[in-house]
Amino acid sequence: MVNNGLLVKERIVEYPQFEKGALTKKIKVCFDSYRTLDGKSKVLISRVNDGSIITRFDKTPLPQSSTDVICPHFVELKWAYGCPFDCSWCYLKGTFRFRPEGIKPTVKDLEKVKLHVQTFLNEVQEPEILNTGELADSLMIENGSNAFSKFIIPLFEAQDRHKVLFVTKSNNIKNLLEMNPHNQVIVSFTLNALSVAESWERKAPKVLDRIKAAAELDKAGYEVRVRIDPMVPMDNWEELYRELIDSVFSKFRPERITFGSLRGLQSTINGTKDTSWVHYLKETSNWGKKIDFKTRFQMYSSVATYLKKKYKYDQIALCKETKAMWSALGGLGMDYKNIKCNCVW
User: Does CATH number 3.80.30.30 belong to domain 53-338?
Assistant: First the structure.
């Protein structure tokens, strides 16, 4: 087997699955050899069992050409599918275009999720962050007795090696504020300029309400990150994104900020009803269509410079951006080989 040009070494750890006291089958933990963005080779977890619950996101190859997209290979915890917020450009609309229920939130068998998570926590030695928000909003079922946060956080708090990452546009943090301890938890809020959110994130909570929720969690001792994604070059965009940054820093100081610009896989464009945002996409990459390079560079450099000058803040990274863009921003200290973006350490 070959992975990113490397001969893959796979080892299997068999873990007994118990159900009502009877040994029923064994859970496999699979490891592959990966080459990381800094050029190192590591043997890392690739999946638990068939990967239906825990798997490594490795869809982006090591960057070779200037248009290749940079994305470190993080670990997904696929506990559910879907999202209630129905943002116009949501890639889930393409991912789940053949599901009869579309992006309607659907939670998997939590007993299976628990078994796979406990197996992972017991058997994987290399510290990892498990992203619960790649295929679902992490806080989409917080109402009622089956809140995901109440289910997953205690599992991670029983150990001190791995962390769980919540990625959300929700402001429903009541359960999180009641959870102690929460040392193994990272919460990342996806934000956007107010006018952008009003135009294309109509069902999501207001941006200022998300910022307030993020600040409350920060005050409660959570590690809180921010994603400003997707940035859109609306008229007066520079002022709009500076206002967003001011709104964030007036409330709290994020542990890190990851920027991304509007992009669209063809499957996403085909799967959405509102395509009013598509006219901003002028270029192609190995991760779909993008805003033209010059405009993206202007947006990133503008917000990065503003953060550095006004707030002395440089804990920033880019999401699914090209190798050429990282190189162009090198003067601002941007280096994809040492990337510290939303989904990794």
Answer: yes
